[in-house]
């Protein structure tokens, strides 16, 4: 295992959030435009949920922000992480809720949802930066996709956000080779 389970879970959440954009989603449409879609994405998220347009807007802005942070080099990522923590006045503490074991939170449960998403992302990114593994935060290699993914493979050679993208690119390359031969 590369990262702690809760870090991996938080990184995966960033990916799930980031990949709701039209350029990364499976449907090809923006999958975070309604309160119902927000609700579905945050099903497992505890704490305050206002379920209004302002919250949706704030989470969409956070989606853009985390997308940008994902591709920063290590030193710039440090700046971005520190800024997110500072702006939220994050104070880490151990907590246990909903049947979970002790784990770290750095915001109060009644802080705005988008702020809690940013701080949780920042806490996970701290681990990635300290372990010098920011190179594992990747963007899909397919020309028509900017899906994010975490490369957890042993040799760090994963190229695509999904099997779907890998197959599509391989099929295109295969057809091109075949056409060349004819
Ligand atoms: Zn928790
Ligand atoms: Zn992709």
From TrEMBL:
Record-annotated Zinc finger CGNR domain positions: 136-178
InterPro entries recorded: ABATE, ABATE_dom_sf, Znf_CGNR
Domain of life of the native organism: Bacteria
UniProt xrefs under PANTHER family: BLL6575 PROTEIN (PTHR35525)
Protein name: Putative stress-induced transcription regulator
Taxonomic source organism: Actinoplanes xinjiangensis
Lineage of producing organism: Bacteria, Bacillati, Actinomycetota, Actinomycetes, Micromonosporales
